[in-house]
Amino acid sequence: MAASPPPTLSAAFDDPRISDRFCRRLSGPAGNLILLGVVHDHPASVARVERVLESLDPDVLALELPAGALALYRAYARERDEKTGTPRFGGEMSAAIGAAPDAEVVGIDAPNWSFLRRVVTRLIADRVSPATARQVVANIGGATREVLACRVAATLTHATSMTVARNEPVEYDCSVDDPPERQAAHERAHVDTVQTLLESVDTDESALSYRDDVRERCMVDRLLECRTKGDVVAVVGVDHLERLEVDLTAQCRSVETQCQQ
Question: Which domain of life is it from (predicted)?
Fold first, then answer.
């Protein structure tokens, strides 16, 4: 008899912000893996990661951040707004760190050495045009500079009495004071609008496709490593959610098949 599918995460919460659209549960022999899709700085996303993490208490918290940026977001997590109780900077990522104080926090995003090796290998194997290769390198260079800037900001934050903010929080026509139902509805509408806009734009995004495809492959590998340590909650951009779920499910099924043979 086939095993019953694991219950959806949203079924355990009476909260419209915690829905199947943004939450995926993948069970396995080593532990559960929860994927939480987020919209950067959105009140619904911040509330979602806080409620889920406070309830689940995972062994590992995996964030769509480069490892080099974690120190800055840990500093953000410690400085909370007196009125809302949420971190003033860092959005859902620093909120996640604050809501899972006992978890091992890991950054699963590029740039890192694994990502760089894969990008170079694929560019050579696919014999991409010089223009695409230059754009990929430029994108990686920009991401690397951002990580270095985060490290400098973290150092200054620890060494002084001021918090160095890399970016101002994104403002939405929705706030933490709004009811959960309004927050959830606003977030869904925002995601739908962005997706519709992206689908309507006809541009050559080959360089971005190379970068994002390799990024997601690296995130899958990193999450599989984290899963060997126990229960994992991963906080990722909602645009990565479907691809990560599909690839992780396929990888887990492949491993289970090999073990049965």
Answer: Archaea
